[in-house]
Amino acid sequence: MTDRLDVRKTYKLFIGGAFPRSESGRTYEVSSSRGKFLANASKASRKDARDAVGAARKAFGGWSKRTPYNRGQILYRVAEVLEGRRDQLVAEVRAAEGVSERRAIAIVDAAVDTWVWYAGWADKLSQVTGNANQVNGPFFNLTSPEPTGVVAIAAPQDSSLLGLVEVLAPVLLSGNTAVVVSSYERPLPAITLSEILSTSDVPGGVVNILTGDIVEVGPWIASHLDVNALDLTGVVDPDVARDLEAEAAVNLKRVLRPGTPTAQSLARITPFLEHKTVWHPIGV
């Protein structure tokens, strides 16, 4: 019996709910922590970044107008599918991060639990971050949270799945859409997540995942006028982070700087909210 040849996979980008090849046609090799070839990943270009932002902007209106309860249901469904592909994700995390099987299982379980935790916040956020304000006059004064818009995310480089979930889920639950640049050396769990999103109830364009180098595509995303906020959690080089923050100033984007804790917290949600205050006369 002859040995079978490996089927070498070449993964694509995830933009607008579809899986296009990189416009540039470029790919790069993804290797395990031990240097073994795993797959080829598309290397996103400037045009791919623009396409991803355009898809996120187009999807924002529909996603932000859904009821918080419905968004929570949709995100919870993603957690269910993540759980269903647990074995695949464990294998990918083991290969990417060089951890034991027990540790990989714990990481995947934590990623699912984190996604569920944030999904549960979708219909509770308004009650916690909004309020009725006390005013000196015959008025109701009500403040309610609204999504910022399109959020560009540099995913953590070392934590291929859990780190990605920790930065993506808190952006989505409030109605924002996202453009994510995945870990460069460890993109396979992000690619699997894109496949999960494409078969879940998340509308196309709500999440767009680019594989490639944040140093290359980051400036085009950070300076794009249709991007409203920038999460630099996954940017390792402080000089690159500084340059991207400077690019973001072109339209006064909200910026979450590197070093911000990624653990489950309301503080991961609120940077990507706007607050609208309405005055209404009493008795009218």
UniProtKB/TrEMBL annotation:
InterPro entries: Ald_DH/histidinol_DH, Ald_DH_N, Aldehyde_DH_dom. Keywords: Oxidoreductase. Gene3D superfamilies: Aldehyde Dehydrogenase, Chain A, domain 1. Pfam families: Aldedh (PF00171). Residues 24-255 form the Aldehyde dehydrogenase domain. One of its GO terms (molecular function) is oxidoreductase activity. It comes from the Bacteria. The keyword Oxidoreductase applies. PANTHER family: ALDEHYDE DEHYDROGENASE-RELATED (PTHR11699). This is Aldehyde dehydrogenase family protein. It comes from Aeromicrobium choanae.
